[in-house]
Every structure is written in C-alpha cells, then in structure tokens.
Amino acid sequence: MSQVSELVVIAHLQAKPGQGPELLSLLSDLAAEVLRTEPGTLRYAFLVEPGTDPLRVTVIEGYASRAAADAHNTGVLTNYLPRLLELLDVAPVTVELQPAEMKVSTDDEAAAARLSV
C-alpha cells in the first residue's frame, strides 16, 4: 500500500457573542498570509453558519504533507493565535483526516473498489 501524505484538518470555531465580524476579519487576514507564505498549504477555507450569534465557523485546511501542517502550526498561525483565542467562546475542536487509499479491482465485480488506510 502506498503512503498517502496529504493531510486535511477540520476546525470548528465559535465566536464570543457579538465577536463574529471581528473573528471573520482576523481569519481573512490569516488566510491571506497563510496562502501567500506557506507553499505546502493547499487549501484554507472558511464556512459559516449564517444567522448565528455566536457565530460558528468551520475551517477546512489542506496540507501537502504532515511537515507542511507542522510548519503552519509553528509559523504564521502563531502570530494570530493569541487574538484568535480571545475572540472564541470555547476552545477550537479539530480533527485531522487523511484520504483513504482506493484500490480498484476488475476481478471481483461485487467489490470493485475497496478503501483502506
């Protein structure tokens, strides 16, 4: 089985009441700097739950490798983290994901594709 190196991080954030606009502004600045300065960052997207106060944001981060994710966590993010945490009502909830490897076989039509990790 080949080694899958891409890493996806999903983070759920909840702003303190009334702090949603400031959180989005800070995240916009962070995303611009991350995408400009971190070549191993493939994706840095934000999704919001509209009409919620406190605002809830889901961050989808994609990295070319574990090393790229580690570089993000010790790089640009550290400049934004203190203010980011001040704007949050609760600690971020994160999960790390890797794509499952898909093997396709024509020998067994009932099980033509199998996922593995």
UniProtKB/TrEMBL annotation:
* Domain ABM per the UniProt entry, residue ranges: 7-97
- Source organism (scientific name): Amycolatopsis sulphurea
Q: Which InterPro entries does this chain map to?
A: ABM_dom, Dimeric_a/b-barrel
Looking up SUPFAM superfamilies in the UniProt record yields:
Dimeric alpha+beta barrel (SSF54909)
From the Swiss-Prot or TrEMBL record, what is one GO molecular function term?
Answer: monooxygenase activity
PROSITE patterns per the UniProt record, alphabetical: ABM
Protein name in the entry:
Quinol monooxygenase YgiN
Could you tell me the keywords of this UniProt record? Monooxygenase, Oxidoreductase
